[in-house]
Amino acid sequence: DSFVELLKEAIIINGITRIYFVNDTACSILNNVLSNKTLFGLEAELLILSIFNNVYNKSLNGRSLQYQQFRLAEFNLQFQKEEFLTNGVFTDLVIDGQLEIKTLVTSRQMHIFKECRIGSSVKKAYEL
């Protein structure tokens, strides 16, 4: 909790108005999940595996590896963004338009970077 508060303070003090969550398609965790390799039990691995299991049959099955990497990175980033938007700490900054959250997938292999195209399920944020 104290780290998150310090992060918020640093964002305000430094006048940061936009935060990017970034995931590269070469991420070993993404690729270990996609190739069904043995995982080490890290929280990040379990998160990616959960995302993969929830979306695989819907959008990744039968697609190229590059497509699967890119889409799984997008889904991961969307999850991270939604967690950030709903944690309550940064809500006032987002509501006041002082902070914008973006997601960006990079691919060194394809030499591209692209903002995610997945729509957020968080449509409105309410300050309590």
Helical residue percent?
Answer: 40-55%
First CA to last CA: what distance?
18 Å
Mean pLDDT: 88
Quickly count the helices: 5
Using only C-alpha atoms, the radius of gyration works out to 16 Å
In order across it, which strands form the biggest sheet?
1-2-3
- Which residues sit in consecutive blocks of at least 5 with pLDDT less than 50? 124-128
Morphology call: elongated
- Tell me the structural class: alpha+beta
Order of helices and strands: HEHHHHEE
Largest beta-sheet details: 3 strands, mixed
Q: How many E strands?
A: 3
In what range is the share of β-strand residues?
A: 5-15%
Report on the structure:
With 128 residues, the protein is an alpha+beta fold. 49% of the residues lie in helices and 15% in strands. It contains 5 helices and 3 strands; from the N terminus they run αβααααββ. The chain has helices at 2-13, 28-34, 43-60, 65-85, 91-95, and strands at residues 18-24, 100-107, 112-115. It has a 3-stranded mixed β-sheet with strand order 1-2-3, with helices on one face. Strand 2 and strand 3 (112-115) form a beta hairpin. Helix 2 (28-34) crosses helix 3 and helix 3 packs across helix 4 (65-85). The longest helix is centred in the middle third of the chain and has 21 residues, at 65-85. The protein is elongated and about 45 Å long. It starts with a helix and ends in a 13-residue tail after the last strand. Mean pLDDT is 88; it is low at 124-128.
